[in-house]
Amino acid sequence: MKKKKNISSVAAERLCNTCGSCYGICPTQAIDYQETSGGYYLPVVDEKACTHCGLCFDVCPGVHFGDTLISQMPVDPFTGVVLDAFVGKATDKKVFDNSQSGGIVTALLSHSLETGRIKGAVIVSMESGSPPRPIVRIARSVSELYVAQKSKYCPVPLLGFFRELKEIDGPVAVVCTPCQLHGLHNVLDKMPKLQNKIAFTVGLVCDRVLTYAALDYLLSKARSDKSVPSILHFRDKAVSSYPGDVHVLSKNGRSVIMPAATRMRIKDYFTPARCRICFDKMNVFSDITVGDPHGLDGIDQRHGESMVLVRTEKGRKIFNYTKDKKVIDVRTIAYEQVFQGQGIDKKRQQWAGYVLAWKKQGRELPNYCDMVENHTPIPAEMKKYLQDLKSSFNQDNFLSRDELIIYVEASLKKKQLIKTLLFPARFSKRVISKLSFLISNYWNSSPSSTHGKR
Ligand SMILES: Cc1cc2nc3c(=O)[nH]c(=O)nc-3n(C[C@H](O)[C@H](O)[C@H](O)COP(=O)(O)OP(=O)(O)OC[C@H]3O[C@@H](n4cnc5c(N)ncnc54)[C@H](O)[C@@H]3O)c2cc1C
After folding, report:
1. Which atom of ligand 1 is nearest to the CA of 107?
2. Is 357's C-beta closer than 6 angstroms to any atom of ligand 1?
3. pTM above 0.90, yes or no
4. How many angstroms separate the alpha carbon of residue 368 from the centre of ligand 1?
5. Which atom of ligand 1 lies at the shortest distance from residue 153's CA?
6. Which range among 244-253, 282-291, 303-312, 424-433 shows the weakest confidence by mean pLDDT?
7. Bridge partners (DSSP) listed for residue 247
8. Atom 17 in ligand 1: which residue has the minimum CA distance?
9. Residue-wise over 268-303: b if at least 16 C-beta within 10 A, else e?
10. How many whole angstroms separate alpha carbon 279 and alpha carbon 370?
11. Which of 5, 119, 186, 332 could form an SS bridge with 59, CB 3.0 to 4.6 Å?
């Protein structure tokens, strides 16, 4: 039999988005994941166990969209189809207080579990460790859902759950980022019998993840003792008001809270290359999309809320059922406001820029790129896009994780120094212009001073 291509080349080209589809589908379990020095989490094939059946490559959404994704590609892939749009929160205080934004994801799952609509929910929890890392499991009880609340803004091979799925006697709900959902559809194309084991999908809005090196950078900023296991929450609204600060909790009881800005300013340093060429921030292939309520009016800015886009009839049924039972408390919103608040016009432009930059580097693009209708003109200034991509690819050129972290810290300090040096100049410029305005006003409006003294 002819040997088929496996996933190794996808990992080498950094086209992998760590969705876990290859790991979940491999019939001989020949695939595992390994961290690179730059913090990527990539599949590694045991060539002795690999039978070269090609399944892992065929389902990989890093390089191609299969039949379902191609046939369901929306007219506007950046926004997708919206049946209804809402904003609101879980009515259970425990779920709401422990949530990332408004707890609607967990409320949908817990109600579906309690009413027997699903037998399990695929979730991701942050496991205590040194360093802490996310883990995937199929929750069978509501208490397991609480542990998994809050967003893990890092790579998660979610579709590894397929290995566990056969143990579940009934359908499951899947909470996923867009790339994980792309992988899910590709796997179901190859294994249509599993379709009826997926009850519904909840897609999280996702602009990008950050590599594991970002997690380690934040731990180093918290001065975590590497020998003591800890947990990291990227955003914890329980320790500061919504959207929440970075929170590191160590097994020895030590708790460190760092301002949200600490996470925000490292984003560009730790963005995986593959995230740059994803158009699907709004998770357009899901049944229900959930995200933060950016740009919406009348939001509870202190405690947070979840924004919801209902995308399919199946999603509508599940959502309305949960709403009618008062498990969630929501109000209708205009979906146009959602796309404005999520910066979708900027996303269109960035996507065009990064796709061109990717091409300019002589790299192969995923097959869907030609199908994405994007009426935004290609940006004239390409410098930033090329630089960002190069920086993402170069992360693995550092000899160690520590070396990369030291480089990022030094670069941030340099930026801060430049800002500080420029600030007094900007400040005095503003003061001088204000003073000259006041003087000229005084001069012109005071006849005695202007004319009398002259
Ligand atoms: C990587 C990532 C990027 C995001 N980017 C944006 C953004 O740019 N704009 C925006 O508006 N919203 C974004 N979100 C969504 C937002 O952070 C919240 O997850 C969403 O509002 C739901 O909040 P909730 O309170 O309803 O969920 P909760 O009740 O807190 O439940 C969270 C659920 O998310 C699941 N989960 C957490 N991390 C992951 C992961 N990495 N992969 C798969 N499942 C996961 C958990 O298992 C849990 O079921 C992002 C989320 C993630 C994971």
Report:
1. 29
2. no
3. yes
4. 25
5. 1
6. 424-433
7. 233, 257
8. 151
9. ebbbbbbbbbbbbbbbbbbbbbbbbbbebeebeeee
10. 12
11. 186
